[in-house]
Task: structure prediction
Amino acid sequence: EDKVVQSPLSLVVHEGDTVTLNCSYEVTNFRSLLWYKQEKKAPTFLFMLTSSGIEKKSGRLSSILDKKELFSILNITATQTGDSAVYLCAPFQGAQKLVFGQGTRLTINP
Amino acid sequence: GAVVSQHPSWVICKSGTSVKIECRSLDFQATTMFWYRQFPKQSLMLMATSNEGSKATYEQGVEKDKFLINHASLTLSTLTVTSAHPEDSSFYICSARADRGRQNQPQHFGDGTRLSIL
Result:
């Protein structure tokens, strides 16, 4: 059975801190992995990771995939209150189906 | 680019009513759209994959006759919750994938529909 486990489930930090969110997965026919940010409504796309060991970066956010150990991490440096959200990890199972993790609820306090 | 519009954003209706939710890709064509359901503080659960011009593929445990999906064009998929009951109350989200002849393209999500059945 496909499984995606995110940790921690909840994280509260102060503005300016750096956070690391973890995602481990076991899915059949794995192709690539996506990270999404969900605030009040629907998820917004952050990264797609296909190759192992290659960091993807967007501003203060970065992410990397380890296909051998079956995990990915999402880093956020110099956090801001606007980073408060649920971060979802979703590997592809096969060509198009995404399997979502439970998410990490990140709260940034001023 | 890659904007997905979902309508309505919130529905409240009586038990036994059928409710239709629309999902449109505004600036791209999507032969495949996806319907998810999300309970409070839980993750997205895929209900079905909607394919333009053919029948939807439902996930295990999702009732086809309860959740009718129609994907009549390359930019529109609809989900109809038939004879809705309070247990159908949930947050329903659609997504679409821009088809560019490549696999594993990111899915782009609509803003979701909060359905409340009284």
About this structure: Chain B has no helices and eleven strands. Residues 5 and 24 of chain B are 5 Å apart (CA to CA). The mean pLDDT of chain B is 90.
